[in-house]
Amino acid sequence: MKRFLFAFSVLTGLLLGAAVQARSLDEIKASGTIIVATEGAYPPFNFFQGSKLTGFEVELAEAMVKKMGLKIEWKALAFDALLAGLRQDRWDMVMASFGVTDARSKAVMFTNPYYCSGGLIVSKDATIKDAASLVGKTVAVQTGSTYMENVRKLVGVKEVKNFPQDTDARSALVAGRVDAWVSDRFVVKTATETNPGLGLKVGDYLFVERIAAAIKKGNAPLAAAVDKALAEVLADGTYKAISEKFIKEDIRCKS
Ligand code: ARG
After folding, report:
1. For 181-201, what is each residue's pLDDT tens digit?
2. Angle at 184 between CA 79 and CA 255, to 5 degrees
3. Mean per-residue pLDDT for 59-69?
4. Are residues 155 and 41 in the same domain?
5. Do 140 and 91 belong to one domain?
Protein backbone atom coordinates (compact mmCIF):
# COMPACT_ATOMS: atom_id res chain seq x y z
CA MET A 1 0.00 0.00 0.00
CA LYS A 2 2.77 2.39 0.99
CA ARG A 3 4.66 1.63 -2.19
CA PHE A 4 1.51 2.17 -4.21
CA LEU A 5 0.89 5.55 -2.56
CA PHE A 6 4.48 6.54 -3.17
CA ALA A 7 4.28 5.60 -6.87
CA PHE A 8 0.97 7.42 -7.11
CA SER A 9 2.33 10.65 -5.62
CA VAL A 10 5.42 10.53 -7.84
CA LEU A 11 3.19 10.08 -10.88
CA THR A 12 0.78 12.91 -9.99
CA GLY A 13 3.79 15.08 -9.18
CA LEU A 14 5.16 14.43 -12.65
CA LEU A 15 1.81 15.11 -14.28
CA LEU A 16 1.32 18.34 -12.33
CA GLY A 17 4.88 19.35 -13.10
CA ALA A 18 4.20 18.86 -16.78
CA ALA A 19 0.91 20.74 -16.69
CA VAL A 20 2.10 23.84 -14.89
CA GLN A 21 5.21 25.40 -16.33
CA ALA A 22 6.49 28.90 -15.63
CA ARG A 23 4.81 31.08 -18.19
CA SER A 24 6.78 33.51 -20.26
CA LEU A 25 5.46 37.03 -20.88
CA ASP A 26 4.46 35.94 -24.40
CA GLU A 27 2.49 32.99 -23.07
CA ILE A 28 0.77 35.18 -20.49
CA LYS A 29 -0.07 37.72 -23.20
CA ALA A 30 -1.40 35.01 -25.48
CA SER A 31 -3.74 33.80 -22.73
CA GLY A 32 -4.82 37.38 -21.94
CA THR A 33 -4.73 36.73 -18.20
CA ILE A 34 -2.00 36.92 -15.59
CA ILE A 35 -2.40 34.83 -12.44
CA VAL A 36 -1.55 36.88 -9.35
CA ALA A 37 -1.45 35.46 -5.84
CA THR A 38 -1.94 37.40 -2.61
CA GLU A 39 -3.04 36.68 0.94
CA GLY A 40 -6.28 38.57 1.46
CA ALA A 41 -5.85 39.14 5.20
CA TYR A 42 -3.59 42.18 5.37
CA PRO A 43 -5.56 45.43 5.41
CA PRO A 44 -5.19 48.01 3.92
CA PHE A 45 -3.04 46.22 1.31
CA ASN A 46 -4.90 43.00 0.49
CA PHE A 47 -8.08 41.92 2.27
CA PHE A 48 -11.62 40.69 1.75
CA GLN A 49 -14.61 42.97 1.96
CA GLY A 50 -17.27 40.30 2.16
CA SER A 51 -16.36 38.03 -0.72
CA LYS A 52 -14.53 40.74 -2.66
CA LEU A 53 -10.74 40.89 -2.64
CA THR A 54 -9.66 44.52 -2.35
CA GLY A 55 -6.98 46.81 -0.95
CA PHE A 56 -4.17 49.06 -2.08
CA GLU A 57 -2.11 46.43 -3.83
CA VAL A 58 -5.14 44.68 -5.29
CA GLU A 59 -6.30 47.87 -7.03
CA LEU A 60 -2.72 48.79 -7.91
CA ALA A 61 -2.16 45.39 -9.50
CA GLU A 62 -5.39 45.76 -11.45
CA ALA A 63 -4.34 49.21 -12.74
CA MET A 64 -0.88 47.97 -13.73
CA VAL A 65 -2.14 44.84 -15.41
CA LYS A 66 -4.64 46.92 -17.37
CA LYS A 67 -1.72 48.97 -18.70
CA MET A 68 -0.18 45.67 -19.78
CA GLY A 69 -3.34 44.89 -21.73
CA LEU A 70 -4.17 41.91 -19.51
CA LYS A 71 -6.75 40.70 -17.00
CA ILE A 72 -6.00 39.27 -13.56
CA GLU A 73 -7.00 35.94 -12.17
CA TRP A 74 -6.52 36.30 -8.39
CA LYS A 75 -5.54 33.52 -6.01
CA ALA A 76 -5.77 34.10 -2.27
CA LEU A 77 -3.62 31.86 -0.08
CA ALA A 78 -1.75 31.71 3.21
CA PHE A 79 1.09 34.25 3.27
CA ASP A 80 3.86 31.72 3.83
CA ALA A 81 2.73 29.59 0.85
CA LEU A 82 2.96 32.39 -1.71
CA LEU A 83 6.63 32.37 -2.74
CA ALA A 84 6.79 28.57 -2.72
CA GLY A 85 3.82 28.44 -5.10
CA LEU A 86 5.56 30.90 -7.41
CA ARG A 87 8.58 28.65 -7.58
CA GLN A 88 6.28 25.72 -8.34
CA ASP A 89 4.76 27.69 -11.26
CA ARG A 90 1.32 27.77 -9.73
CA TRP A 91 0.95 31.50 -10.48
CA ASP A 92 2.81 34.17 -12.45
CA MET A 93 3.27 36.85 -9.82
CA VAL A 94 2.86 37.50 -6.08
CA MET A 95 1.73 40.83 -4.68
CA ALA A 96 1.37 40.47 -0.93
CA SER A 97 3.54 43.24 0.52
CA PHE A 98 6.75 41.24 0.35
CA GLY A 99 9.79 43.23 1.40
CA VAL A 100 12.85 42.79 -0.79
CA THR A 101 15.45 40.81 1.19
CA ASP A 102 18.66 39.06 0.18
CA ALA A 103 17.29 35.69 1.24
CA ARG A 104 14.11 36.08 -0.81
CA SER A 105 16.09 37.43 -3.77
CA LYS A 106 17.91 34.10 -3.92
CA ALA A 107 14.61 32.30 -4.45
CA VAL A 108 12.53 34.73 -6.55
CA MET A 109 12.97 37.86 -8.64
CA PHE A 110 11.58 41.20 -7.47
CA THR A 111 10.19 44.00 -9.63
CA ASN A 112 10.85 47.64 -8.78
CA PRO A 113 9.37 48.50 -5.38
CA TYR A 114 5.79 49.80 -5.31
CA TYR A 115 5.91 51.20 -1.79
CA CYS A 116 8.46 51.93 0.90
CA SER A 117 7.69 51.14 4.51
CA GLY A 118 9.07 49.53 7.64
CA GLY A 119 8.30 47.43 10.70
CA LEU A 120 7.03 49.38 13.72
CA ILE A 121 6.98 48.31 17.35
CA VAL A 122 3.45 48.51 18.77
CA SER A 123 2.44 47.95 22.38
CA LYS A 124 -0.21 48.88 24.91
CA ASP A 125 2.57 50.08 27.21
CA ALA A 126 4.16 53.33 26.03
CA THR A 127 7.52 52.36 27.60
CA ILE A 128 7.83 49.47 25.11
CA LYS A 129 8.86 51.47 22.08
CA ASP A 130 12.28 50.45 20.77
CA ALA A 131 14.52 47.41 20.35
CA ALA A 132 16.07 47.87 23.80
CA SER A 133 12.68 47.85 25.50
CA LEU A 134 11.82 44.47 23.93
CA VAL A 135 14.38 42.72 26.17
CA GLY A 136 12.55 40.17 28.33
CA LYS A 137 9.32 40.73 26.40
CA THR A 138 7.03 38.55 24.32
CA VAL A 139 6.52 39.77 20.74
CA ALA A 140 3.81 38.73 18.24
CA VAL A 141 4.63 38.61 14.50
CA GLN A 142 3.27 37.03 11.34
CA THR A 143 4.93 33.71 10.39
CA GLY A 144 7.42 34.06 7.55
CA SER A 145 7.40 37.86 7.59
CA THR A 146 10.33 40.25 7.78
CA TYR A 147 8.89 41.23 11.20
CA MET A 148 9.55 37.69 12.42
CA GLU A 149 13.01 37.69 10.88
CA ASN A 150 14.00 41.04 12.41
CA VAL A 151 12.57 40.36 15.88
CA ARG A 152 14.38 37.01 15.95
CA LYS A 153 17.67 38.82 15.39
CA LEU A 154 17.22 40.87 18.58
CA VAL A 155 19.12 39.69 21.61
CA GLY A 156 17.20 39.23 24.85
CA VAL A 157 13.62 38.99 23.58
CA LYS A 158 11.84 36.49 25.84
CA GLU A 159 9.68 34.90 23.14
CA VAL A 160 8.75 35.49 19.50
CA LYS A 161 5.18 34.26 18.98
CA ASN A 162 4.28 33.48 15.36
CA PHE A 163 0.82 33.76 13.91
CA PRO A 164 -0.28 32.63 10.43
CA GLN A 165 -1.99 36.00 9.91
CA ASP A 166 -0.80 39.45 10.88
CA THR A 167 -4.29 40.31 12.18
CA ASP A 168 -3.95 37.42 14.68
CA ALA A 169 -0.64 38.83 15.89
CA ARG A 170 -2.42 42.13 16.44
CA SER A 171 -5.29 40.40 18.28
CA ALA A 172 -2.79 38.73 20.61
CA LEU A 173 -1.52 42.18 21.62
CA VAL A 174 -5.02 43.59 21.98
CA ALA A 175 -5.96 40.63 24.22
CA GLY A 176 -2.86 41.18 26.34
CA ARG A 177 -1.32 37.80 25.50
CA VAL A 178 1.93 39.41 24.29
CA ASP A 179 3.80 42.60 25.18
CA ALA A 180 4.33 43.90 21.65
CA TRP A 181 3.40 43.42 18.00
CA VAL A 182 5.72 44.29 15.11
CA SER A 183 4.04 45.09 11.81
CA ASP A 184 3.99 47.39 8.83
CA ARG A 185 3.76 51.12 9.42
CA PHE A 186 0.65 51.54 7.23
CA VAL A 187 -1.03 48.41 8.61
CA VAL A 188 -0.52 49.92 12.06
CA LYS A 189 -1.76 53.31 10.87
CA THR A 190 -4.95 51.73 9.50
CA ALA A 191 -5.49 49.57 12.58
CA THR A 192 -5.07 52.45 15.02
CA GLU A 193 -7.19 54.85 12.95
CA THR A 194 -10.04 52.42 12.43
CA ASN A 195 -9.98 51.20 16.04
CA PRO A 196 -8.89 54.13 18.23
CA GLY A 197 -10.36 52.36 21.26
CA LEU A 198 -7.75 49.59 21.23
CA GLY A 199 -5.25 51.72 23.12
CA LEU A 200 -2.32 50.78 20.92
CA LYS A 201 0.84 52.85 21.37
CA VAL A 202 3.04 53.19 18.31
CA GLY A 203 6.77 53.05 18.93
CA ASP A 204 9.87 53.25 16.73
CA TYR A 205 10.83 51.56 13.50
CA LEU A 206 12.68 48.29 13.97
CA PHE A 207 13.79 48.35 10.30
CA VAL A 208 12.75 49.82 6.95
CA GLU A 209 12.02 47.93 3.74
CA ARG A 210 11.01 48.26 0.11
CA ILE A 211 7.94 46.33 -1.02
CA ALA A 212 7.84 44.73 -4.48
CA ALA A 213 6.04 42.17 -6.60
CA ALA A 214 7.72 38.77 -6.82
CA ILE A 215 7.97 36.77 -10.01
CA LYS A 216 9.74 33.59 -10.98
CA LYS A 217 13.50 33.87 -11.18
CA GLY A 218 14.67 34.32 -14.75
CA ASN A 219 11.40 35.85 -15.98
CA ALA A 220 13.09 39.18 -16.81
CA PRO A 221 10.70 40.17 -19.65
CA LEU A 222 7.77 39.94 -17.22
CA ALA A 223 9.66 42.04 -14.65
CA ALA A 224 10.39 44.67 -17.30
CA ALA A 225 6.72 44.79 -18.35
CA VAL A 226 5.56 45.16 -14.74
CA ASP A 227 8.16 47.88 -14.06
CA LYS A 228 6.97 49.79 -17.13
CA ALA A 229 3.32 49.54 -16.05
CA LEU A 230 4.26 50.69 -12.54
CA ALA A 231 6.12 53.71 -13.93
CA GLU A 232 3.02 54.58 -15.96
CA VAL A 233 0.59 54.45 -13.02
CA LEU A 234 3.07 56.40 -10.88
CA ALA A 235 3.25 59.11 -13.57
CA ASP A 236 -0.42 59.44 -14.53
CA GLY A 237 -2.00 59.92 -11.09
CA THR A 238 -3.50 56.43 -10.84
CA TYR A 239 -1.07 55.32 -8.15
CA LYS A 240 -1.64 58.46 -6.09
CA ALA A 241 -5.44 58.06 -6.22
CA ILE A 242 -5.33 54.40 -5.12
CA SER A 243 -2.82 55.16 -2.37
CA GLU A 244 -4.90 58.03 -1.02
CA LYS A 245 -8.06 55.94 -1.20
CA PHE A 246 -6.68 53.21 1.03
CA ILE A 247 -3.97 54.90 3.08
CA LYS A 248 -4.84 58.61 2.91
CA GLU A 249 -1.35 59.45 1.66
CA ASP A 250 0.96 58.67 -1.23
CA ILE A 251 3.26 55.85 -0.11
CA ARG A 252 5.51 55.59 -3.18
CA CYS A 253 9.25 55.21 -2.55
CA LYS A 254 10.83 58.65 -2.41
CA SER A 255 14.33 57.40 -3.12
N1 ARG B 1 6.33 43.29 4.68
C2 ARG B 1 6.41 42.09 5.45
C3 ARG B 1 7.28 41.08 4.74
O4 ARG B 1 7.87 41.38 3.78
C5 ARG B 1 5.05 41.49 5.73
C6 ARG B 1 4.21 41.21 4.56
C7 ARG B 1 2.93 40.58 5.00
N8 ARG B 1 2.03 40.42 3.89
C9 ARG B 1 0.83 39.87 3.99
N10 ARG B 1 0.10 39.80 2.94
N11 ARG B 1 0.43 39.42 5.15
O12 ARG B 1 7.40 39.98 5.16
Report:
1. 999 999 999 999 999 999 999
2. 110
3. 98
4. no
5. no
Asked, for residue 3, whether it belongs to a domain, the answer is no
**Ligand 1 center to 40 CA (angstroms):** 11
Enter the pTM of the model: 0.91
User: Residue 176: which domain range?
Assistant: 117-208
Beta bridge partners, 182, equal 121
Question: Distance between CA 42 and CA 96 in Å, rounded?
Answer: 8
Nearest CA to ligand 1 atom 10: 96
Torsion angle of alpha carbons 141, 204, 244, 68, nearest 10°? -60
Mutation probe of ligand 1 site: the residue of 54, 146, 186 with most atoms within 8 A of C-beta: 146
Q: How many domains does the chain have?
A: 2
Phi-psi region of 232 (alpha: psi -120 to 50; beta: other; left: phi over 0): alpha
Ligand 1 environment, Cβ below 6 A: 39, 42, 46, 79, 96-99, 142, 145-146, 166, 184
DSSP-assigned letter for residue 1: -
8 assigned to some structural domain: no
